[in-house]
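re the bet — no i am not wrong, look at it urself. input seq straight from the record:
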Amino acid sequence: MSHSQHNHIHDYKDVKDRNLLISIFLNILITAAQIIGGIVSGSLALLSDALHNFSDVISLVVSYVASKLSKRKASINRTFGYKRAEILAAFINAATLIIVAILLIIEAVKRFQDPQEIESNLVIWLSLIAIFANGLSVLLLKKESKNNINIRSAYLHLLTDMLASVAVLIGGLLMKYYLLFWVDSVLTFLIAMYLIIVGYDLLKTSTKMLMLFTPDHINIKEVVRIVNQLPKVKKLHHVHIWNLSDDELHLEAHLDLEENITTQEFNILLVDIERVLHDTFNINHVTIQPEYKKEDPKEIIVQD
């Protein structure tokens, strides 16, 4: 990696962390305003938005800490460093999204059966402030959310919160002009359902990574077929492919060879294997155990 590339990655990570910090402070301000406003106005949708915002603050802090941890150097006791911290953060964030949503649904159903009068002006102003602050946070994290599961989890929290605030604003306007106070509960319910859908998808992705499942875009049989076509290769077997982090994809496998080649010849072959795996599947860490006439199972997947 060139010096300029290295600096570029550092700059990118610093910008990512700075944007997370700005979003944390914005969300602390919104949460405080919405809790006070929700209590004063009697709006459950506003309080539910505040609860969601508070979960944003937690998720952003978790994401920020994970982002910082993931940059720590590997050591003798932690040979991978903290690279999986960001996947763990995404898992925690997804789980909290779903828990918050279930709590909101319970409250919305209770409130729908017994609608309360709500101070709508306060609801309208506070939801406008929340839309602006969350919108700013969403813009700050949008770019990085495409490349990093941790930032994506924080970004989704904020995006759903912005949509929730839009819903609260619509509810406030309907309550102000049409006195439809039941709208507050219906909006709370809809916000919660959306949270569950978004949270489930993220929970599934992060769980697969934590369980070291083969990434969805990788076809192991195709990996084996391509490597088997290389000269001197008899069979790639005992294959494991997993994501260590969002940007590190590992392969480890045994390689049965046609000939009893020298270590130097194997090194040349290994360069070819690494190149083809990187170019075709974006696998960037390859560990191969070479074998020649070794008696062991030759299946692609070997269950130890």
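see?? DSSP finds eight helices and three strands in the chain. told u. also The mean pLDDT is 88. so pay up
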